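Quick one, tokens below:
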């Protein structure tokens, strides 16, 4: 198993646990190198870093930036940056400003099909009011008995083409990658297996990402299956990208993996964590 998790969330964005608890849970499962990557916000990093230090676990600052690319919403993970860099902080603040507007429009869209009062209920699940998002809507709808689980609620209400989905313009890919690089970090395409792209579109995404300064792609992810691991390992090699790994943990019972450890990386691509630790450190 791989004792690395470079993609996980806390209640600073749409996770359920405080940053310190996410770190402690990852450490308890054998993690040796961890990154907290909350959506569009870095205010959980200080607590997460302090908890990792107290446990003797290596920590990498992270964030997951919401991006609009063509007609698609993508996520770009930033790793190993200065969390106090002004350009990054200003950019993330600009992305967060649009979240409340989107939430209001989602509430209105659901009300139009007879599902009312959803935003008020979703806010009860959002510990950070600036980060209200689809996961908070989903938890409320499940609590009301309108779906059994996260997969079901997205399929019925919140995925593209469903009643509660509204389009939104997030950061451009060039801006997101630029903020991360300005702060000294590495930009990584998050969970590419979730994007229903053909070979040509995926190749175009990677080339545009690289042209913007992006350097990595998630190969091993909680959203991927073993075939995806091999597919994206080959793409990483082909395009000269660093390979990353992360559980994309949000809450127990809401995803495929708990935080902390993952299946081994396929041989071939250079791991992104080679920027911060050597192989011997992770092996011991």
């Amino acid at each position: 198993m791989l004792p690395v998790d470079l993609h996980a969330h806390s209640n600073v964005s749409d996770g359920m646990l405080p940053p310190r608890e996410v770190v402690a849970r990852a450490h308890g499962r054998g993690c040796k190198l961890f990154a907290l990557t909350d959506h569009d916000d870095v205010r959980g990093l200080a607590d997460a870093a302090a908890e990792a230090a107290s446990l003797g676990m290596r920590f990498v600052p992270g964030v997951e930036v919401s991006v609009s690319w063509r007609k698609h919403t993508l996520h770009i993970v930033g790793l190993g940056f200065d969390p106090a860099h002004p350009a990054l902080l200003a950019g993330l603040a600009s992305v967060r400003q649009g979240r409340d507007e989107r939430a209001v429009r989602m509430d209105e869209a659901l009300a139009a099909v007879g599902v009312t009062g959803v935003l008020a209920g979703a806010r009860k699940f959002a510990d950070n009011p600036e980060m209200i998002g689809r996961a908070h809507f989903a938890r409320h709808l499940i609590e009301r008995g309108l779906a059994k689980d996260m997969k079901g609620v997205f399929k019925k209400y919140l995925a593209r083409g469903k009643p509660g989905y509204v389009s939104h313009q997030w950061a451009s890919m060039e801006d997101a990658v630029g903020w991360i690089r300005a702060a000294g970090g590495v930009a990584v395409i998050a969970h590419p297996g979730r994007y229903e792209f053909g070979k040509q579109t995926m190749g175009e995404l990677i080339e545009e990402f690289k042209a913007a300064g992006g350097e990595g792609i998630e190969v091993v992810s909680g959203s991927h299956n073993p075939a995806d691991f091999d597919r994206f390992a080959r793409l990483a090699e082909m395009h000269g990208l660093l390979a990353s790994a992360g559980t994309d943990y949000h809450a127990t019972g809401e995803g495929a993996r708990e935080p902390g450890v993952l299946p081994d990386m396929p041989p071939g691509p250079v791991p992104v964590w080679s920027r911060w630790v050597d192989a011997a450190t992770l092996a011991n």
